Amino acid sequence: ARADNASQEYYTALINVTVQEPGRGAPLTFRIDRGRYGLDSPKAEVRGQVLAPLPLHGVADHLGCDPQTRFFVPPNIKQWIALLQRGNCTFKEKISRAAFHNAVAVVIYNNKSKEEPVTMTHPGTGDIIAVMITELRGKDILSYLEKNISVQMTIAVGTRMPPKNFSRGSLVFVSISFIVLMIISSAWLIFYFIQKIRYTNARDRNQRRLGDAAKKAISKLTTRTVKKGDKETDPDFDHCAVCIESYKQNDVVRILPCKHVFHKSCVDPWLSEHCTCPMCKLNILKALGIVPNLPCTDNVAFDMERLTRTQAVNRRSALGDLAGDNSLGLEPLRTSGISPLPQDGELTPRTGEINIAVTR
């Protein structure tokens, strides 16, 4: 017999069984919910008395596969239902033999106790209704028939069950696809992390080279101590763009190749990290001829917090002095031009510089 296909839809059968035992007043009834209509069976309701095949040559015939299979149908019975066991021949042969003896339906019970009913295939059997039930329920009914107890059965259409969207083949395909995807993903991740490690190592090497080059460049830059009467002490002279403070006597200043002046303690941390002028972005490595082919680190926005953390105490003190002196005033902002560079093409053009002068 051919088993059902998991991709096919099927209909469940609701079966009510009524057993009328002699000498017992009320009939015994029970319900079978796990029946299943055959694929080629009409999906309709039917009612009739249940009959099993007659013995053949003195041996009980439960299969209905023998061409000599017969059923004893009492004259007063108009509709009857054949009860057969699965096995030994096709579902079509069993159903056709029952239909030949004018059964209105065939109930086939399974031959394995742990197996659920299947969707039987029986093309060409006509309008006879075919239903499969479990082995346990089938043998329960057969036990009453063997005792010559009348059994009535009503079969009704249950629920339409949609086809399952996967089979064993599709499950294997999905599993293989998942494994292949995992292999590809793992290979990509390994490649990604290798590239990331290589990039990180290369970046660290470049940063170390830049740091060494920046230290070498800083050591070559001009420094001097501001003295009384120097132009840096003039109130109109540009203030240090890092700490926004004026230059005082004995301050040590750093003069960059672009002629911009800063406090040494302010500009050195910037140059160590960025190797460019904070104002005009001049590359001091190129200006001094140190590692001309090695680019500076990102020309990021001026990081005031990082550059001035060493001057935080001085700034707070200066702001406190400003707040305590009502005679102080802020001059309007002014822009001053950029001093020419000693080498052409080494200065990024800029529109001007913003300076704040504090006067008393």
UniProtKB/TrEMBL annotation:
Membrane topology: Single-pass type I membrane protein
UniProt cross-references to SMART domains, sorted A to Z: RING (SM00184)
Presence of keyword Transferase: yes
Intracellular or extracellular location(s): Cytoplasm; Membrane
Transmembrane segments: 171-194
Keywords assigned by UniProt, alphabetized: Apoptosis, Cytoplasm, Glycoprotein, Membrane, Metal-binding, Signal, Transferase, Transmembrane, Transmembrane helix, Ubl conjugation pathway, Zinc, Zinc-finger
Domain of life: Eukaryota
Reactions accelerated catalytically: S-ubiquitinyl-[E2 ubiquitin-conjugating enzyme]-L-cysteine + [acceptor protein]-L-lysine = [E2 ubiquitin-conjugating enzyme]-L-cysteine + N(6)-ubiquitinyl-[acceptor protein]-L-lysine
Gene Ontology cellular component terms for the protein in this record: cytoplasm; membrane; nucleus
A GO BP annotation: ubiquitin-dependent protein catabolic process
Pathway annotation from the record: Protein modification; protein ubiquitination
Record InterPro entries: PA_dom_sf, PA_domain, RING_finger_E3_ligase, Znf_RING, Znf_RING/FYVE/PHD
EC annotation from Swiss-Prot or TrEMBL: 2.3.2.27
Domain RING-type stretches: 240-281
Alphabetized Pfam families for the sequence: PA, zf-RING_2
Gene Ontology molecular function terms on file: ubiquitin protein ligase activity; zinc ion binding
Record PANTHER family: RING FINGER PROTEIN 130, SI:CH211-59O9.10
Protein name as catalogued: E3 ubiquitin-protein ligase RNF130
Organism of provenance: Rhinopithecus roxellana (Golden snub-nosed monkey)
Gene label: RNF130
